[in-house]
Design a protein that fits this description.
The complex is a heterodimer of chains A (249) and B (326). Chain A is of the alpha/beta class and 249 residues long. Helix content of chain A is 32%, strand content 29%. In chain A, strand 1 and strand 2 form a beta hairpin. The longest helix of chain A is centred in the C-terminal third of the chain and has 16 residues. The chains are: A alpha/beta (249), B mainly alpha (326).
Amino acid sequence: MNELAAPILEVNNLSKHFGAIRALSDFSMEVRPGEVVALAGDNGAGKSTLIKALSGVYRPTAGEIRLRGEPVVFSTPQEARDKGIETIYQDLALADNLSIGANIFLGREPMRKAFGFLPVLDRRKMAEAARQTMALLDFHVSRMETPVSNFSGGQRQAVAIGRAVYWNAQILIMDEPTAALGVPEQRKVLSLIRQLKEQGRGVIFISHNLQDIFAVSDRIIVLRRGNTAGKRAISETSHDEVVKLMVGG
Amino acid sequence: MQRIADLRAWLFLAALIAAFEAWARLEFGGTFILNPFNLQSIAVFAVAPLLLATGQTFVIISGGIDLSLGFIMGLAAVIAAHVINAATASMGLPMAVLLGFLAAVLVACVPGIINGLLVSRLRVPPFIGTLGMFGVARGVAFLLAGGTTVPVTNSFFAFIGNGRIFSVPYIVIITIIFVLIMHYVLSQTKFGQHNYAIGANVQAARRAGIDIKSHLLRLYILSAACAGLAGVLYSARFNAGAAQAGEPLLLDCVAAVVIGGASLFGGSGTIFGTVAGALVIAVIQYGLVFVNVEPFWQFISVGVVIIISVLIDQAQRRFSGGRQDE
């Protein structure tokens, strides 16, 4: 949104080759605070490769990634996450049998001392943080101890986003967050993305659904066979143009 | 949902006790459960299956299974007997017992380490890996025992195994303390929390930064250590180590966990549920003897109870699966 603000994330001339296959060539983009950048492209266009390079799963063959101006290299997804790039996967990555709080804190659980000496999980802190975080996303649950398996798809998506927000992710990569959801749930997720935008975070939004893309994004980048087919501001393009870019017509 | 599963096992236990009580009164005009001797016997009877089932609870929640626990228990029983016999002359009664206890639990951890490495590093399915270890531990235990039982000559050990305080046997007290500690580990520590997460969704746990390999290694060591303690208490109680000590408990311990409300698919279960499950089995086995039914009915009744528990569990899951919050 804010054209003057310095970008949180800059990607310069990024390439990823698997042997002779150029999965992604010479890709550049930037994401500014409060900006939603959509990535579109057919299967095999290079979207997944790009996400994996950004989230630390793949090492890029060439090019650089800068976070707030600093060049960064991630050797594991954990490193990317520690620096504030969080990927929300299509299959959600929640432990269904645990509460929202336990999912937010999974792997970094807060402890307290019971009776002054016995370390125990600080469930109250987890529930409280969960409540606050979910309220930030305009999502209100009464029963914080309920396992997330009892929630609907959109609510679970919110929990996954809430986890990223709680750990202060500055860039959220969302891979098809509206796929496999009913229409009201899709709307809910889109409104979550708007919330993230208002909070000044950067969102990279991958979707097949052009309506969703046009509903929340500021800019769109279209990939085709590993190359950048076009970059447009959403306000200056149309469905037809994007489709043409995708299929190369 | 977990609470319901727990509660179900305790309700079942209560109903079972009530049934035996009614049976005993009608048939013999005596009481079943108000008889302190019966209570004591059931508690002692439940010690070994409960200890194995405690370890098994952790493994089953993680989505695995440990089939080697029964013979790890036998191995520990034999080791405890040998070490205590060898050490008694030189270091006095209590120290020899302590040494035997430590040696048995440590040796029991060895098959646990191998199970853990097989499952975590070599990606052997737990069913197969621990089935292999079942054979290995069995063979080693019988070899070390020389194919027979190993009598222990240490009066302190016999005192631990058969002594009582306020008519509660020491081995029951030891078991209660240990089970409470394991309840704490499962419900209040990161280890326990990660165990539930791994059982529900390994992928999610890995992405959350949990070290799955090291968790699984520690998990199988923990379950083997539970079996080790069961083996030591067995040889204390019978004053002898026997390789076949845990043989009949192999599947009883899985049954106790399932009756206690855990899912064999992983992700759910509690220690208190397992306690109820182990007591259900002990009450069935002891109760049928008490009311003078042929002992073979024990197998049939425990088998039927397992199947019923799983059916109820599935029905409950189907019922609550459709429910959504707000």
